[in-house]
Design a protein that fits this description.
Distance between the termini: 29 Å
Strand content: 15-25%
CATH topology of the largest domain: Rossmann fold
Order of helices and strands: EHEHEHEHEHEEEEHHHEE
Number of strands: 11
Helix content: 40-55%
CATH class of the largest domain: Alpha Beta
Number of domains: 2
Oligomer: single chain
Length: 227
């Protein structure tokens, strides 16, 4: 995997030896890593760091891993891997229902954690691992470029984020509220019709006059179909 320094990982555990060991190992792999000794510190760190992956111990003082997971999942897109010292189905079910993406039992091997982190990245952030192709489209997140049949599209930053979001969810109907929250942010206070304006601009740049690539489903939203 190349360019791992672009990938941010947050570690939260109240056991310093585990925290130090994981931080050292992940930094050695090239990742950008931040650590937190408890739940409140994890939330504070996450707000500024905006991790792609958060590895959370379940049993932390102040605010446990379940609460941290729930709050992280309510904000930015982040993959969450929970760590627990207890082999209890109830804990795993609770974590998954709160949005956790994976679960690991202590003790575990560093190699297994690394493999699970990479699996989450491939699943949720494929563009971070290098250019990704979707049919005739190619997304290069490091260069902030999207090309169609080899032609780089001239996109504004917001158009780029919208086009990338549509591509990553191609074939799925996305509502205006969902698009606004992901592209403009949950605190956007403007008119949701701004989505129509940007979709119209993307169609012009794609040459999609008949709306065969970005389709409008009345009352539902938009769906990108790969040409």
């Amino acid at each position: 995997m190349k360019g791992r320094s672009d990938i941010r990982i947050l570690l939260a555990d109240d056991e310093p030896p585990i925290l130090d060991f994981l931080e050292l190992g992940l930094r050695h792999e090239g990742y950008d890593v931040k650590t937190a000794p408890d739940g409140w510190a994890a939330l504070k760190e996450a707000a500024a760091f905006r991790p792609h992956v958060a590895v959370l111990d379940v049993m932390m003082p102040g605010l446990d891993g379940f609460e941290v997971c729930e709050r992280l999942k309510a904000g930015d897109s982040v993959a969450v891997i929970m760590l627990t010292a207890r082999d209890e189905v109830g804990d795993r079910v609770k974590g998954l229902r709160l949005g956790a993406d994976d679960y690991m039992m202590k003790p575990f091997s560093f190699e297994e954690l690394l493999a699970r982190i990479e699996a989450r990245l491939r699943n949720q952030f494929p563009y971070l691992l290098g250019p990704v192709s979707f049919g005739a489209f190619r997304v290069d997140d490091r260069r902030k470029e999207i090309s169609l049949s080899g032609r780089v599209l001239e996109l504004s930053p917001t158009e780029y984020e919208l086009m990338r979001y549509l591509l990553l969810n191609h074939g799925v109907v996305l509502s205006k509220p969902a698009i606004l929250e992901r592209v403009w942010g949950y605190d956007f206070a403007g008119d949701e019709n701004i989505v129509e304006v940007y979709v119209r601009s993307l169609r012009d740049k794609l040459g999609d006059r008949e709306h065969r690539i970005i389709r409008t489903l009345r009352g539902a939203g938009y769906r990108l179909d790969l040409p």
